[in-house]
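Incident log entry.

Two folding requests arrived from the same account within the same minute. Monitoring flagged them as a possible duplicate submission, but the sequences differ. Recording both here for audit purposes.

Request one:
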Amino acid sequence: VFISILHRYLIITRESLFTASKISVKAMCSVTCLYMISLSTPMHEIIKVLRKWKLPEIMIELMFLIYRFIFVLLEVYYNMKTAAKTRLGYVNLRRSYQSFFGICTNLFVIAFQKASKNFDAMEARGYDGNLRFLESEKPATKKQLGLCGGYFLVIIILLGVERILI
């Protein structure tokens, strides 16, 4: 199939369509797995594993602070949007744009203020450049190891079947 776009041609073949769909499915599966891990595992356990893997401390701390700050910003955004709705900020399209851009502007300013207050609170609690979490050992049970082994066996079989069919 040939498609003309701005005096150039986009050529789509069966192989390229198959490759694009395969990559899209892999990307969606990866995102789904990351969502599952991030929504089902407490943050301190993820950090514990990353420290065991010897990931640089600066990356772990940035990841944790960004993760925390996302929820702070979401709360502030929700409060500002609620305030705009109560003042009829979304009555028509023009007011909606004004409210949206006003919220964005204020959110930028408030983000800096919240970041400064959070850092002050961390320093007041003894932050010295390293985040420390109370970590306890949780040895894996035989049932968990068996389920994990069964899961990996199914994945290996599925990979083998995929390789044979392709």
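Request two (distinct sequence, not a duplicate):
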Amino acid sequence: FIAEPRHIEIQVLADQHGHCIHLNERECSIQRRHQKVIEEAPSPFLTHATRQAMGEQALALVRAVDYCSAGTVEFIVDPGGHFYFLEMNSRIQVEHTISEMITGIDIVKEQIRLAAGEPLGYGQSSIDFYGHAIECRINAEDPNNDFSPSPGKINRCLLPGGIGIRLDTHSYSCYVVPAYYDSLVGKLIAHGKDRRESIARMRRALAEFEIDGIHTTIPLHTRILRNSRFLKAEVYT
């Protein structure tokens, strides 16, 4: 039993020629019913030594199974920084966006290249990391009513923008959110020079984001990003 665990994952890329790299970690500890709600990169918790050790172990697993593609090795991390293998996702994940923001690498493009048999073309030493990124998963749910589903027609959709803001969405005014599929209607990402700036940019973007006609988790994210424990990075699953 691990008290107050963190969910931290390592993004990896591996080709068919024996080369593999990692793109450091993503902190995914804020969850509801074991589903991620907010993710950030890098983790505000890890030390440099732990980060290096987790990257090395992720690549050891990749080599052991001759993995080829983009993928994610997930770990549970205890308050003392000890980490334990959880699972590997052999696919692109929802939160791949924040790794793209801090590295400048298009992970979807890389997955297609690797599937076509092309070599990575670069090594671990050539990967640079810039700033801090946060992603909020915007779902069609009512957080004030036990997260009840909220399908229906979007009467008005006003999307945020600006420096450091990225929005991946299929939603638009008059779009109808169906009741039969995943409730995700958008991924809002904020990048800044450090955690403080990325949080400030995310707060502004959430304030600008308007989806009328259905309930969304935008108010929940607004509350989380003003929560004192979140601001101190005192989070766990």
